[in-house]
From TrEMBL, chains A, B:
The modification N6-(pyridoxal phosphate)lysine is found at K128. It is an enzyme of class 4 (lyase). Its EC number is 4.2.3.1. This is Threonine synthase. CDD domains: Thr-synth_1. Its cofactor is pyridoxal 5'-phosphate. It comes from the Bacteria. Belongs to the threonine synthase family.
């Protein structure tokens, strides 16, 4: 796909990351050149990518996107990646199905159109492939040779797979006592997988130390020193939803909250599409979904607080179990500004929602998908979500990765191999 | 997608399954009207779909396909489905990635272009979604209301999911002592899942009895009375490979063998594309891949036999473990006619090949994918497969479904959360 590359105008950097012009502090607006940094040197606020989209013509851009590949690189002109990104070896995630969920809509009483954005269709079956793909391009641009992260699950596999395909070494750090299945899913790609004697906090602390040490030289930690690039991958969820709706904004979108980064980037993506003229400028509401056992943001939302008080996670939705979500305050702001809400559901409701989605639409979601579907149901019942409006629910992962959560699901009947025995079972 | 529907000309039937004109016996050529039957009433040979493609103009057809949806229904004009199939609720499988596997090619010494057709990207993560989607349309056409099958794994989930989305009841039969993980994957979609006290043969025998019994009235068994329709789904693998190569035939294609049906339909699909003028008519070779522990077809191939002697399966590649493959003789014929071969690999080689594919391309394959990659390597070493030619290897399923096979894969190191401990581990 030939795209217009806008040179970095303010940074003076020679790094080619397409339309990415600089890093900009989300708190104080201070700009710094593109580089493997994540905190503002003035105020320690989080850095994010600032773009120069000024050269784009709306209809030319739309045509370029529509003629692009069936993956996230159709949006290369809007991402911090070089224009020829699609020619480089990577897993090409994205362009997952937006499923019109009429059966689920019937059960939930939604009449305005209900859609499930099913990110289990990504190469390693979670939305993490989207964000890792951006971090990989940044790692290439900065000359890193090892791709790394701290992880308790989906991210480890996504990094291992992407690094294998791209010819990077990978070294991923996890708590040493993870379930064997998760270890296999991460180790199969042949990179180094290091178990740390400690919990996830210890793993994170160790990674931060390693970044400042000579031993970590040449290492890109996708969710630490490459975080500003990594996080942008979630914008592609917003782009795809709108394009798949026929270049329309949804009225309502339900997004899971772990660190909160995904929700803030979905909002950023929708805002960009409006500014670029690719969709009509009209109101939309963003809803955040948490599990009750790790609900620091929904607790703050309901209490009317601006500050998020950390919690100790205890939920089956482990991919959302971040007790001190970095982007929590931004999530609160977006939910309130758009007229959305943040809600949570119990583990039992998560399991019910996983089964509901599977039974109605044939989609087997990870626990995080159970959280968004469960919260959608709860928000409809409470009246916070309008069932007459177009609503999109994100499923960010695959049920095969969290089989334990629904381990109670089993046989309807056990019979002898005879017709009499079958008739006795009462199934006909 | 608007397509030309060719009315059934020979059957007198009122069933609308697009270009499907009749069922035709693969042995004696006897034609019967489209219906839920699978064996010839003259000679008991297997029935397959006979099409009327006579009205198609090559370039119009190509344009229709290219403008079609990003799933198997882009090929609706070549499948036994109604023209409006894409508007009906189903899982929309297919159009999975054809990955240019340059890293794997480097390891195997392939210089002519090596591609992995990665069917783990399907909705329930195996190629079974392709075949079930065809059976579902046949079930709709014949007025069935329950979708059923006998299964030991992938098929149960594919049927359960497709039935849920399409609003069919499902009732799937499995051996009662299947692993809990496989039971969960099949049961999650909410259909009836019946455990039969006995082995897979007992399950199959029971299903055949049920078809002839009033208790089975209105039931479509995807792999029994709907088998002629079901089997056609594998043609879409051939279509997609050729279109994704830029409407070119591959020189060599490596296909796994369970019943052998998939390999025969890949050949049928390639032949159809040649006859329709969508690809150039040139020679191609089809290779069959089996696990040594269930290698009735490769044993017959190597011995020069036309008859396949049944074996008792004993391999980790359970999705290929059919000891008495119905299409074995047809597979032998195709491998010999095209200049291909049938080869097998040990379970150890299967595991090595799974790891090789994951390490080089970031693709985590099911054991069946380990079989095809392992056989590809063996065929290159023996000289049967030409490394200077364009070669496509099928991966028909997802590694998450056969984690047990690679359960030995684990941590590179376990360390304390300190830089000293990390340095001692010798990873930097």
């Amino acid at each position: 796909m030939a795209v217009q590359t806008v040179a970095s105008s303010t940074s003076g950097s020679t790094v080619d990351l397409g339309p990415a012009a600089a890093l900009s502090c989300r708190e104080c607006g201070h700009r710094v050149p593109l580089g493997p940094v994540f905190a503002c040197d003035k105020c320690f606020g989080p850095l994010e990518i600032a773009y120069d989209f000024s050269a784009y013509d709306t209809e030319e851009l739309r045509k370029k996107i529509e003629a692009g590949p069936a993956n996230i690189w159709r949006y290369a002109p809007l991402l911090p990646v070089p224009a020829d990104v699609a020619d480089k070896p990577n897993l090409n995630p994205g362009w997952t199905k937006l499923v019109k969920a009429d059966n689920l809509a019937g059960e939930l009483g939604v009449t305005g159109g209900l859609y499930v954005k099913d990110d289990s269709g990504n190469p390693t079956h979670s939305f993490k492939d989207r964000v890792v793909a951006q971090a990989l391009e940044a790692a290439r641009a900065f000359g890193f040779t090892t791709l790394s992260c701290s992880s308790t699950g989906n991210l480890a596999g996504a990094v291992g797979a992407a690094a294998a395909r791209a010819g990077f070494r990978s070294c991923v750090f996890i708590p040493h006592d993870l379930e064997q299945g998760k270890v296999v899913m991460a180790a199969i790609y042949g990179g180094d997988l290091v178990g740390i004697e400690g919990n996830y906090d210890d793993v994170n602390r160790f990674c931060s130390e390693l970044i400042g040490d000579p031993a970590g030289e040449g290492w890109g930690f996708v969710n630490v020193n490459l975080r500003p690039y990594y996080a942008e991958g979630s914008k592609t969820l917003a782009y795809e939803v709108c394009e798949q709706l026929g270049w329309r904004l949804p009225d309502q979108i339900v997004v899971p909250i772990a660190s909160g980064s995904q929700l803030t980037k979905v909002d950023k993506g929708l805002q960009e599409l409006i500014k670029l003229g690719l969709v009509e400028d009209k109101p939309y509401k963003i809803f955040g979904a948490q599990a009750e056992g790790c609900s620091p943001v929904s607790t703050a939302f309901k209490a009317g607080h601006d500050v998020v008080r950390p919690q100790k996670p205890n939920t089956i939705a482990k991919s959302l179990a971040i007790g001190n979500p970095a982007d929590g305050p931004y999530v609160l702001d977006i939910a309130r500004r758009t007229g959305g809400a943040v809600e949570d559901v119990t583990d039992e409701q998560v399991v019910d929602a996983i089964k509901l989605l599977a039974r109605t639409e044939g989609i087997f979601a990870e626990t995080a998908g159970g959280v968004t579907v469960g919260v959608t149901r709860k928000l409809i019942e409470s009246g916070a979500l309008d069932p007459t409006k177009t609503t999109v629910v994100l499923n960010t992962g695959d049920g095969l990765k969290t089989l334990d959560a629904v381990a109670g699901t089993g046989l309807t009947a056990t019979i002898r191999p005879t017709l009499d025995s079958f008739r006795e079972a009462g199934l006909v």
